[in-house]
Design goal:
The chain is an alpha/beta fold. It has 8 helices and 6 strands, in the order E-H-E-H-E-H-E-H-E-H-E-H-H-H. It has a 6-stranded parallel sheet, with helices on both faces. Helix 1 crosses helix 6 and helix 4 (110-117) packs across helix 7 (164-178).
Length: 193
Amino acid sequence: KVTYMYNPLTIRCEHPSSCDSKIVIAVGRLDYQKGYDYLLQIWSLVHKKHPDWILNIYGDGTLLNTLNEQISNLGLSETVFLRGKTDNIVSKYTESSLFVLTSRDEAFGLVITEAEACGLPIITYDCPSAPAELVNDGENGYVISPVGNIDEFADKVCYLIEHADLRKKMAKKSLDIAECFQINDIIRQWVNL
C-alpha cells in the first residue's frame, strides 16, 4: 500500500495580494534548474508590450553574474531586478500581482504553494514533476508546455497583465488551493496514516 503526503506551508499570510501592482515575482536559487535564462527571454517579450511592469527575482546562487549579463544584453536593466535573499518573502509575494516559475524540473515547488497562499495567480512550465499537480490550468493560473516554450509563456503573462479581473479571480482560486497545504491538514493526514 502506497500513499504520499504533500509538504506543508511554512508561511502565514494575513493580507493576501490585491493583485493591483505592476510587479511580477519569481523566487528560487539562481541556477540552471530554475530556468531564469528562459524567464529573461520571456520578460524581453513582455517588456515590449508592458514597459511599465517590473520583474523581481528573489534568490541567490552561482548564476548571479551570468544572469546580470543576460539582463544587460537584453536591455532589461530598468525592468528586471535580482533582489537576492529576503527575510520577509511574504511581503514580497503580497506586493506582487503574478508569480512565475520557469524551472526545468521541480521536486515539489514549495514556492508555488507559498505564492498561492499569498493570493497570486501562477504561471509555470509543465516540468517534471509537481507544478501540474499544484496549479489548476485555467483556474488559478496557467501550466505551459513544453518547458522552454517562450512565446506561449510570454503570451500568458501579457494576458494576465491585460485582464485584471481574471488575475484577481485566479488569485482567489489560489487561496482556495493553498488551504490543502495548511500544516494542520497535513498533520491530520499523518495522524490518520
